[in-house]
Design brief:
The chain is mainly α. It has one domain (10-313). It has twelve helices and no strands.
Length: 329
């Protein structure tokens, strides 16, 4: 009876994994090939034409994508070591499989759940918090570089800003201030304070060495994929001064990051923002959309396809059990 029950659970778990992989594949297909805003014959024609003149750039673009994910995996390995040491291979599996899961959930919630499933229940909340910390470091880097680019964009192109355009940014700022104040308010919740206070205490106790390394890896990763975008401008024959192009790329990532959408729609958002920004320099809209699609294929679709394999072979009893490091709290 026990064996029948066990096989029954394994069968249903296999169906769930297949549903996740097929669902991810379906969403990618819908956005990549059944999308009225994207003309793939035009994209393929442009790519093929420029590939003849800049064939050597394509392997370099792939290398940049590999570097991008290597840095992301190293960052996760560094953060996970706060509560449990993991090998680079384990961090790779966790990062790619959780990336695939993020396809099916808004605000990257699938990523948080996916990574937590690889650890024991007693530390899953900490794993979720550590993943949040990693994303916040990446967000902070994007905001810092983006602010510099935004100042340049407003001054150089003489953009007139009206009060209503600041409402969204004011709302975001006010939200974070309120969250910070709420976390420092002594609201009784047992003996340990409320959940936010406990989470804040946990993040404060992360060793400074881990924080510095996470910050450095976040900066390096940002520079990698932003320069990859710059290389694609050259690949498609767009001639823009390096400084101007990079500052506009910073603004593009800044604006796109502030728009809360599912990661599956990433190339549509970045493509729209890029068309608007580089339109001030007279860059063809079709080329900007082609660049956004190629970035999406290399940095989003390819890792999701690889992650699908790890989702299929995942077993609920394959938790990491060789931890030798004591948890911080």
């Amino acid at each position: 009876m026990y064996n029948i029950s066990s096989k029954y659970k394994q069968f249903w778990f296999f169906l769930v994994k297949m549903a996740i992989v097929l669902g991810a594949g379906y969403f990618i297909y819908q956005k990549a090939f059944v999308n009225e805003s994207v003309s793939y014959p035009v994209f393929l024609a442009d790519t093929t034409r420029y590939l003849g003149a800049f064939w050597w750039i394509l392997p370099l673009l792939v290398l940049f994508s590999v570097m991008n994910w290597m840095l992301e995996i190293s960052k996760w390995q560094t953060l996970a070591s706060v509560v449990q040491k993991v090998s680079y291979k384990e961090a790779l599996i966790q990062s790619l499989s959780s990336h695939t899961l993020s396809l099916l959930a808004p605000f990257k919630t699938g990523e948080y759940v996916g990574k937590a499933l690889y650890f024991k229940k007693d530390i899953r909340k900490k794993i979720i918090l550590l993943n949040f910390v990693g994303n916040m470091y990446q967000l902070l880097v994007t905001l810092v570089f983006g602010t510099v680019g935004l100042v340049y964009f407003v001054q150089h192109f003489h953009i007139s800003w009206h009060p209503y355009k600041f409402r969204f940014f004011a709302f975001i700022t006010a939200f974070f201030i309120l969250v910070f104040l709420a976390g420092n308010t002594r609201i009784p919740y047992g003996k340990k304070g409320n959940y936010y206070q406990r989470a804040l205490a946990f993040t404060r106790r992360i060793p400074k060495k881990i924080k510095y390394k996470t910050g450095l890896l976040s900066v390096l990763r940002y520079l990698v994929f932003s320069h990859q975008f710059y290389l694609m401008l050259g690949f498609f024959g767009v001639e823009i001064a390096y400084t101007t192009a990079m500052l506009l790329v910073f603004v593009m990532y800044f604006i796109a990051t502030l728009l809360p959408v599912m990661s599956l729609f990433d190339f549509l958002i970045k493509g729209s923002v890029a068309i608007y920004l580089f339109g001030y320099l007279g860059v063809d809209q079709r080329l900007m959309l082609s660049i956004s699609i190629l970035m999406w294929l290399l940095n989003f679709v390819l890792p999701a396809v690889l992650g699908s394999y790890f989702v299929l072979v995942f077993k609920p009893d394959n938790y990491i059990t060789k931890s030798t490091k004591k948890a911080i709290i």
